[in-house]
Amino acid sequence: MSTDTTGVAAPGTPPTEVAPTQVCASTPMGYGSMRRKEDARFIRGQGRYLDDIALPGMLHGAVLRSPFAHAKIVSIDTSAAEAHPKVKAVITGETLAGLGLAWMPTLSHDVQAVLATDKVRFQGQEVAFVVAEDRYSARDALALIEVDYEPLDAVIDARKALDEGAPVIRDDLDGRTDNHIFDWEAGDSAATDDVFANADVVASCDMLYPRVHPAPMETCGSIASMDPVTGKLTVYTTTQAPHAHRTIYALVAGLPEHKIQVISPDIGGGFGNKVGIYPGYVCAVVGTIVTGAPVKWVEDRSENLMATSFARDYHMHGEIASTKDGKLLGVRVKVLADHGAFNGTAQPSKMPAGLFHVFSGSYDMAAAHCAVTGVYTNKAPGGVAYACSFRITEAVYLIERLVDVLAHDQGWDPAELRMKNLLKPEQFPYTTALGWEYDSGDYPTTLQKALDIAGYAELRREQAAKRERGELMGIGIAFFTEAVGAGPRRTMDILGLGMADGAELRVHPTGKAVLRLSCMSQGQGHVTTFAQIVAEELGISPDDIEVVQGDTDQTPFGLGTYGSRSTPVSGAATAIVARKVRERAKIVAAAMLEVSPDDLEWEKGRFHVAGDPSASAAIADIAMAAHSDLELPEGVEGHLDATCVYNPPNLTYPCGAYICVVDVDKGTGQASVRRFIAVDDCGVRINPMIVEGQVHGGLADGVGMALMQLMAFDSDGNHLGASFMDYLLPTAMECPSWELGETVTPSPHHPIGAKGVGESATVGSPPAVVNAVLDAIGVRHADMPLTPAHVWRAMRGEPIRTDLAIG
Amino acid sequence: MQITVTVNGTAHTREVEPRLLLVHFLRDELRLTGTHWGCDTSNCGVCVVQLDGQPVKSCTVLAVMADGREVRTVEGLARGAELDPIQQGFSDKHGLQCGFCTPGMMMTCRALLDRNPDPSDTEIRVAISGQICRCTGYENIVRSVHAAAEIERAAQEVHQ
């Protein structure tokens, strides 16, 4: 596979013929690092986010939440709230039970309470919903609801969830006598055990990927409006997957799907937090049905952090085997997965641990095996969110920490150990011990490029000199392989819905086009990037292409934007739909020029007769002719449009090499990221500026997760990270000036060779930061987040459990 | 209580509850929805507006505290079709992605440039240190402010 390290390949060029070219902003077709089309609104304060929408006569909802992690509900008295002069309705679990809506299905074959009926199972769980004339009155009325709780012992430590005598959280499920959800395995257990039995060296490590929360700046919310005459339900909502939401509303509420319109307006960040359907959304729907008026519900920050999808919470025991000279042989892991009170993970339904089983990573391994056990605890449901590519964050963290632990034990250089074991370019396509077929990559070149940018040898010399002086400096490396663009319908579905996405393209008579997408931007710049794909394929300026997304009445069906799947799936659909339009245009052009289509040649934006460039027709002329009285061949319908549903033949496999340099204050344990080098290979880059921006954001996530973002619980199940005062997100002060590089190995099976990049940096960066801090302090392992207090304790050989309150 | 607040040069008189937050006054009473709300605890800064020229977090200011004072919001940055240099800088340097923190960031950075026309990287980072962006990793925000400063310097040279 060829690799270009100087520029990027032109979008639209078939992968087999990729001729790398330097993309520049002035490229006439409008691709490359053009400024984003959507910014004109945002910089003027004219974004239209959920809470910006006000419908005539709209009421406001608020949710009463449980103060306890586990408690029986003895009684609920709503009379005082109902008597509030501005309150229009108070809805409880009992109200919903009467409608058959007290429980709703999750995305993982479980049910979740919409409003609690029998007991509450996590702090912050939804208990009642008030609808009032304004948002302040709705909140006032919450204080008037009297709930009598009988507190129960809570299961907070996942490692004790399966203990005999542990309180049973899900006694709502028939015959349930424990907190066990599932056991799941991948890989060849016997072959892996053989490899380990015969290995010279084995390193093992217990590690926690702690519970974190994506915390987009805009919280979740919804406005539901039922037209009592037509029976049409319109739901404005913060969703990354509007079509999936519509189908689920139809299935849950029994409403006819064609009478439901889901509109996702501008979204203020998603990161996986806005994939699922939350109880507040369902309550807003019930609220509009009950009151006959539109009902808005917007959660506050504490509600967002306490009750909506968290991520990770993987307790892992990993082992890695190698020869005595550092050839990696195998990896195996046992995982205890804390799924909270309801099993609501959002991932391909046949994969209860998501894509975790890519954990053999970027190395040539003979064997690998994982065994994952999922358990219920008295915490909020979730697990798969936060730019994790369906748990590849956990997989990459596991393997990249294990490689460093092995290097630490054996006194090997972590860069050399990685370089020695990385897959070689000639091994692609490469089938891993766990069955994944990696499509393309040049891993050694990628790592070498990062080492060169960092000046690795010089950094090691500086570190040694500083150690002599008693100063702590660390260098951390991580190499990741992502697996995105879910996914092939034969192996991947969500609730039985195949993970395909649609695109519709129509060129209007004057040559301007509209592209309709099933995916939904949350800041990724779809309006620009997808216009650029069409621009490249048809030779229309991106400014002449309107991109429509986020409205189920206006766009084709598809599963939406998460798991870095927009470019791999919808991007492919867009390229193909544009090529279909081009094929139709060719037939029309042939009729216009009175030649056979076979005599036509395509150059950007026009067809011309082979050997006679003067006999040609531009796309705009062809579009007008396609709508005119021009006689077309039998069977050609006219107009200039096409549709496509793209079913990915395989995932795409971006990769990257990350190097982090930290300084640690010996006196306080404060780790500061001084430099961060990121070399990403996401295949062909459509808009390099946007790609780099996405990488920047993901790197900041890595710094936050590794050093700051703490979401622990006390023994009663009180959430200790329920505001931004406690759940610390990285600011400009914690982030260095990122140093980026790139390699480009186009995906051979993607129409434009693109692989997706949205989550690469969030997946790859946490282990680089952790490896750097532990390298600085000379400690084999300590769990994230490496806060100053934790680093200080780790330096003294007393690392802590970061998922529990320090006792 | 009756208050009169001048917002982007226009005086608005309204009867408000004493507890009404300035952010809700702007968004719900005046329908200026460019100013966002994000956290309740003064940590995120998506609600930053200028109050008598100083950046403040409007989720932590009561509307009544703005009585008789001047508020400037993101809607007051551009002069008609002409963007403020800070808006141009954010657009040129890809200083925004989802756009939710952007109005607050721009109001803070506008105030920074008003008092310091040539800030260093560190001065920019300190200025926005009370605000959170989840998308950009801050690097392009820093570049955007530098770009805005350059635009203003160039304009000043032409003017001179």
Question: What fraction of residues of chain A sit in β-strands?
Answer: 15-25%
Name the CATH superfamily assignment of the largest domain in chain B. Answer: Beta-grasp domain
Strand order of the largest sheet of chain A: 5-9-3-16-13-14-15
- Could you please say which CATH topology of the largest domain in chain A applies here? Aldehyde Oxidoreductase, domain 4
Order of helices and strands of chain B: EEHEEEHHHH
Give a structural overview.
Chain A is built from 18 helices and 36 strands. With 807 residues, chain A is of the alpha+beta class. Chain A folds into three domains: 50-152 and 219-266 and 274-307, Alpha-Beta Complex (Aldehyde Oxidoreductase, domain 3), CATH 3.90.1170; 310-486 and 650-795, Aldehyde oxidase/xanthine dehydrogenase, molybdopterin binding domain (Aldehyde Oxidoreductase, domain 4); 500-646, Aldehyde oxidase/xanthine dehydrogenase, molybdopterin binding domain (Aldehyde Oxidoreductase, domain 4), CATH 3.30.365.10. Chain A has a seven-stranded mixed sheet, sandwiched between helices. Chain A has a five-stranded mixed sheet with strand order 11-20-19-18-12. A four-stranded mixed sheet of chain A has the order 24-34-35-36, with helices on both faces. In chain A, a hairpin with a 2-residue loop joins strand 25 (493-494) and strand 26 (497-498). The longest helix of chain A is centred in the C-terminal third of the chain and has 28 residues, at 566-593. By secondary structure, chain B is an alpha+beta fold. Chain B has two domains: 2-76, Beta-grasp domain (Ubiquitin-like (UB roll), Roll), CATH 3.10.20; 85-159, [2Fe-2S]-binding domain (DNA polymerase, domain 1). Chain B contains five helices and five strands. In chain B, strands 2-1-5-3-4 form a five-stranded mixed sheet, covered by helices on one side. In chain B, helix 2 (85-92) packs across helix 5. The radius of gyration of chain B is 16 Å and the shape is globular. The mean pLDDT of chain B is 97. At the A-B interface, helix 1 and helix 16 of A face helix 1, helix 2, helix 3, helix 4 and helix 5 of B.
